[in-house]
Every structure is written in structure tokens, then in C-alpha cells.
Amino acid sequence: MDPLHLLVRWAHVAGMAAILGGALLLWWLAARRPPLDDRLTTRVAERYEWIFWAAIGLQVMTGVGNLGAFGNALPPPESAWGTKLTIKLVAVLALALFSVPRTLIVAAGSEADTTPHLSLPLLYGSTTVIVIGILGLAVWLAHG
Ligand code: HEM
Q: pTM here?
């Protein structure tokens, strides 16, 4: 593996870690009983939404970079590997679609200076579960 591909692969894994780590942290912060300082949770959530979308952009760019590294050896879509990749990409799309309302709810909550108590644990819990699913698919893809 050449150094550039190693760097791209490292960035892909680092982006995944940022998405997953932040979602786990917020799930824990939002679900804590008795609640921690709500403003803290809201502020971390606002910050995370920026990081999340930047990291999704990075995942798409570096993911395409990973594909490019296969060059002419890229397996066809109808191969077993191609099917796994398709499933992973559909899951990534689902994560992005699910995240639009999540970001909007967090943004609306911070503008109104309130925390939507019930929805935050649910939103970040679901985000964590979807990301762990994608992680499983990615490891299955990369390491059989
Ligand atoms: C459009 C988006 C994406 C594309 C095109 C893409 C593509 C790829 C490709 C081609 C590989 C290499 C597979 C192999 O060597 O067989 C890979 C590995 C991986 N991807 Fe993605 N990916 C995307 C998004 C994501 C997301 C959102 C996550 C996590 C949330 C993720 C996590 C991983 C992980 C953990 C690996 C394994 C890396 C390794 O073991 O070296 N990917 N991805």
C-alpha cells in the first residue's frame, strides 16, 4: 500500500471514529439521569452537528479515494464484494437522510434556547446504532 493510500485510509477510519465517538458521547450526555447541565448537552450537540457533516463529506471523498486505489482491479458491482459495497452505500445514504431532521431539531432547539428532552437521547441513540451497523458492514467489506 503506497503512503498516499495509507493516509486516505487513515483519514477514512479517523472520520468514522469522530462520527461514532461524538454520537456515543451525546447519547450518554442526553440520556443521563439526573440530567447534566442541559446547556452543556445542547452546546456539544451543536458542535457535533458541524463535525458530523464535515466528517460525512470526508468519508465520501476518502471512500471514493479507497475505491480509486483499487484501480482496474475494482471488483464488479455483481461480485460479492460489490454487493456488500452497495449495501454499505445504502446504509450511508440512510444515515445522511436520518441526520437531516436531527440537525434541524438540534438547530431549532438551540435557537429557541430549549432542549428537546425526549428526542435527543432517541436521535443520538439511533445515530449510534446506524453508525455501528455501517462499521460492521465496512469491516465485513474490508476484511471479509
Ligand atoms: C460514500 C461513502 C463511502 C464510500 C464510497 C466508502 C468506501 C470504502 C471502501 C472502498 C473501503 C475499502 C474496502 C476494502 O478494502 O475492501 C472502505 C473501508 C472502510 N470504511 Fe468506508 N466508505 C464510505 C463511507 C463510510 C462511512 C460513513 C463509514 C463509517 C461510519 C465508513 C467506514 C469504513 C471503515 C471502518 C472501513 C475499513 C477500513 C480498513 O479496515 O482499513 N465508510 N470504505
A: 0.91
